[in-house]
Amino acid sequence: MPELGKSVAPLSPAPARAFPEEGLEGSPCLKTWQKPIFILCLLFWVGSLVIASLRMVDSSISNPLEGGFLFLAAVSTLMALGRRLPLQNVLATAMIITAISGAVIALTSVSGVPWGPIRYSAVLGAPLFGVLPWPLPLLWIFLIVNGRGIARLIMRPWRKTNYYGFWVMGVTCLLVVMFDLGLEPLAVYVKHYWIWQTPESVPAWYTAPWVNFLGWFVTALAILTFTMPWLINKQPVKQPIDYYPLVLWLMFNIWIGLGNALHQAWPAVVGSVIGNAVVATYAIRGARW
């Protein structure tokens, strides 16, 4: 017992640790494999850049390299997501994105709704069920997860406002549309992934009707609406700032920009460079807030 007349120092809580229980909710398996998968993805990306620089678009190793890069980029994206979310959340996110994007792609290839009249080529491989090119749902996994990661960086200074979640969704959808603006000339004129059957009287961007970009925005919004409950970490644990989505995003856009530049698609190149420079600037600024 303390002596009478002497004051007793009040009990104080233990000092808080920086990032308490950081990454506790993540999947240990995915975190273990994330770096090796990213290194492999980086090698495929470099190989794709070399092939593009040498203008070996139709070579026997071009498609395997590019397909491998897309596959590893999507897998690496999910691995990175697993650093802060449980495995079941990552799997549910991947399945929802695949299901919704696959349904929209199949519907568009059959009816032209909602993106416009399009025909996918054999370059994308044998279509699943006769209507669904298998690489495209992987592309949507890459776009939605990394786009949302970048949007969270950009909006970080306003993360405590009432409409933060809606702004993150809106910015993500805009990033997806910006990505497609750069992708269309590469996909149509360089890689011949698909052919737009747009009437000459309809305004278009490298033969892609402008309604296509509205369709991409709405598709991204629909996917985010259904995946958002699985993408939110319900554990009140402070997460470290994650630049990984931005790195992957810029890697993919550099590959697209190089292909467009080598084939003189200058409006797409200029738009992509300016757009991604602005995105990177605001993402880094938001992360350092």
General description of the model:
The chain is mainly alpha-helical and 289 residues long. It has 8 helices and 4 strands; from the N terminus they run αααβααβββααα. It has helices at residues 28-53, 62-81, 87-111, 135-154, 164-190, 210-231, 244-262, 266-287, and strands at 118-120, 194-196, 204-205, 208-209. The strands form 2 sheets. A two-stranded antiparallel ribbon has the order 1-2. A two-stranded antiparallel ribbon has the order 3-4. Helix 5 (164-190) runs antiparallel to helix 8. Mean pLDDT is 89; it is low at 1-24.
Provide the fold topology.
Blueprint: H1 28-53, H2 62-81, H3 87-111, E1 118-120, H4 135-154, H5 164-190, E2 194-196, E3 204-205, E4 208-209, H6 210-231, H7 244-262, H8 266-287
Antiparallel strand pairs: 1-2, 3-4
Helix pairs in contact: 1-2, 1-7, 2-4, 3-4, 3-6, 4-5, 4-7, 4-8, 5-6, 5-7, 5-8, 7-8
Radius of gyration: 22 Å
How would you sum up the major sheet?
A: 2 strands, antiparallel
Please give the share of residues in helix.
55-70%
Q: How many angstroms does the end-to-end distance come to? A: 48 Å
Shape: globular
Give the neighbour order of strands across the main sheet.
Answer: 1-2
- Count of helical segments? 8
| Low-pLDDT stretches | 1-24
Relative strand content: under 5%
Mean pLDDT: 89
Q: How would you spell out the order of helices and strands?
A: HHHEHHEEEHHH
Number of strand elements: 4
Structural class: mainly alpha
